[in-house]
Here is the input.
Amino acid sequence: GAGVSQSPSNKVTEKGKDVELRCDPISGHTALYWYRQRLGQGLEFLIYFQGNSAPDKSGLPSDRFSAERTGESVSTLTIQRTQQEDSAVYLCASSSGTARGTDTQYFGPGTRLTVL
Amino acid sequence: AQSVTQLGSHVSVSEGALVLLRCNYSSSVPPYLFWYVQYPNQGLQLLLKYTSAATLVKGINGFEAEFKKSETSFHLTKPSAHMSDAAEYFCATLNTGGFKTIFGAGTRLFVKA
Here is the structure.
């Protein structure tokens, strides 16, 4: 695959339902990031995975949010009991992980989540 | 804690005019700084980054940025705007730990014919 892919591209859900968002990083990239972008705002860091190290979850806004990554492959971001304020574009990025945060992050197209 | 502030949520320039997008950083240590661009209906991509080497950093599409420690600034410039430069631009930095990217609120650039 050429780049980072995310699915679904759009998700509309009802308040209180759980949603799962998927990210396929570039093959060989050990670092993976999730961000949230609310309408008209900058990106908000959510979580960072680097290889087999414990992820940095410091940006997750509440315990309704969780993310998993198996090895250096696919990652899923799960939001439980969605609220209207969760409506945003969720972006995933991956990088080679060789230079910690300074290596170039490659972003996916995002998943636009709308909570009714 | 590291942070960046982008001055101006919207900037409008005429085609062929100078583009200047402002970013100021707050950091207690030498920062790493980035500019990203988000074209309409496309993902973010890196324009350029400063990692404490040369203070004038050249990026893609004719953009460049200059790190000025005395002004705590990292403004993005392009000598001559093109219609295709219309996009949202984000300044960013790294947190102290070195892997959490902190983004500014963004500046939307409009280019008038």
About this structure: The first strand of chain A starts at residue 5 and ends at 7. The mean pLDDT of chain A is 92.
